[in-house]
Write a sequence for this structure.
């Protein structure tokens, strides 16, 4: 069985972030000037929520038994935060709802998929998946 260095898994994170930023830049460039703000605002909410979770997971990396309770509490906080974020963006900031919702949903799915992969690696303790 091949051994994997846990630090090697952490080296993937900058590449993941760079890929997301590059895709975001491409989407913003392709969209033109009319909905750039909606794309960026649609990205920021999920990015902040997932960023907070990444920090939480890293802080509990050596104590996975403490992670479940923290993740449940973080889920509740993220539900309230993201609901409030969408309301503020649409009602107060005045972003166009449809492009904002498409951007928000797309980034939400991608960021949470990346978060799930990161969490899986952390919980495996840097070991490759069992065959």
């Amino acid at each position: 069985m091949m051994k994997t260095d846990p630090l090697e898994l952490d080296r993937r994170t900058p590449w993941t972030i760079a890929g997301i930023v590059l895709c975001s830049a491409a989407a913003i460039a392709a969209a033109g000037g009319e909905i750039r703000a909606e794309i960026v605002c649609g990205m920021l909410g999920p990015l902040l929520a997932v960023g907070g979770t990444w920090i939480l997971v890293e802080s509990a990396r050596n104590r996975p038994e403490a992670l479940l309770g923290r993740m449940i509490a973080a889920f509740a906080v993220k539900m309230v935060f993201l609901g409030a974020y969408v309301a503020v963006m649409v009602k107060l900031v005045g972003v166009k709802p449809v492009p904002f919702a498409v951007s928000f949903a797309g980034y939400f799915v991608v960021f949470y998929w990346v978060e799930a992969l990161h969490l899986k690696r952390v919980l495996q303790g840097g070991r490759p998946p069992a065959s």
Remarks:
- Residues 3 and 94 are 51 Å apart (CA to CA).
- Helices lie at 6-10, 12-31, 36-59, 67-93, 97-123.
